[in-house]
Amino acid sequence: MANIPEIAQLGAAVLRLRAQVITDIQCAETQRIIETMLDTLATTQGVGIAAPQISVSKRIIIIASRPTPRYPSAPLMEPAVMINPAFEALPDTMEKDWEGCLSVPGIRALVPRYKEIRINYTNQQGIVVEAGLEGFVARIFQHEFDHLEGKVYLDRVEDNRDIFAESEYFKISSSSMG
């Protein structure tokens, strides 16, 4: 396991920068960043991570949806490394749902996101991938993509009353499940 960096926290300048395009996917530095991101994400209960969250302003995200105590109903998928990702909304339909962030601990908020998107990115082997995403995985992608644009999910909240302490969020979510 690599040296696990601290997750950049809200207020860190790197989280407000537009991340740089990766020009050489196969270079040792890019591969090291990816391995560090994978190792770091594995030590958290998160379902995705962006390079700026490990204080590297590069256009790399990893989506790794899996059920965790933070996201008990998340679908299980293999981690997907996405370099220089882009997306477009399919229908322009948005929906509000709960999000949290490793860079904003202890807070959850209702965030509007597109329900369905078409994405493209280059994978770790240098292959261009196009795919459609919907629901929770589409939400993860848009959340991580925002990190590459210098945004955090709180920037998307429409009403401050949609921001909750995580302890209150868990009270609400457990009462709605039971």
Strand and helix map with partners:
Elements: H1 28-42, E1 48-50, E2 60-63, E3 80-89, E4 94-101, E5 104-114, E6 116-122, E7 128-134, H2 135-148, E8 163-165, H3 166-177
Antiparallel strand pairs: 1-2, 2-3, 3-6, 4-5, 5-8, 6-7
Q: Looking at the structure, what is the overall shape?
A: globular
Task: List the secondary-structure elements in sequence, H or E.
Answer: HEEEEEEEHEH
Q: Main β-sheet: number of strands, strand sense, barrel status?
A: 5 strands, antiparallel
From the alpha-carbon coordinates, what is the Rg to the nearest angstrom? Answer: 16 Å
Overall strand count: 8
The CATH superfamily is Peptide deformylase
Distance between the termini: 39 Å
- Mean pLDDT across residues: 94
Tally of distinct domains? 1
Name of the CATH architecture: Alpha-Beta Complex
Q: Strand portion, in percent? A: 25-35%
Estimate percent helicity.
10-25%
Tally of helical runs: 3
CATH class: Alpha Beta
Structure classification: alpha+beta
Please list the strands of the largest sheet in the order they lie side by side.
1-2-3-6-7
Q: Low-confidence runs (pLDDT<50, min 5 residues)? A: none
What is the CATH topology classification name? Peptide Deformylase
